[in-house]
Amino acid sequence: MGTEIFLHSAWDAYCERLPLRKEQGRVDPVTKADPMHLGRDVWHLGSVVDSIADAEERLVGNGYFRCGDDLMSAMGLSWSNTVAPLLDEQEFLPVWRAAELLALIESRPLPNERLASGLTKALSRQRELLMTLLRKSIELREPLEVIVFEGGPPNA
Length: 156
Description:
The protein has 7 helices and 6 strands. It is α+β, with helices and mostly antiparallel strands. The strands form 2 sheets. Strands 4-1-6-5 form a 4-stranded antiparallel beta sheet. A two-stranded antiparallel sheet has the order 2-3.
């Protein structure tokens, strides 16, 4: 289980600024499997990121978040049982539900005994990034598109 979350006003603007190149007669299996991933069928990003942490922070700042179920599980939550029921029919998280989810996450800190491990430091960072995107959604009064995946996000 995992998720991808989009704040479309920021994500679409970010994608428009990136150098994009169209594949010449080659099908990109990622975008074909998930055509709305970048909002294009056979386009892909023509840039490479320096590090995963920097990339995650930059992407959240530009309206995109993804992770597996380990973050939610560490807080006693899950994408399928906690978040999916909050979504509307189009799989968007309404602003008022984003506020509810933010409050729930804030009320469930990661267990202290795990904070010394590298995994928990990574989960703590992901938790902060998720809360940042939820706050941005609330501030802009824009719903988030949330895609909950069985088995994790594509290319996880």
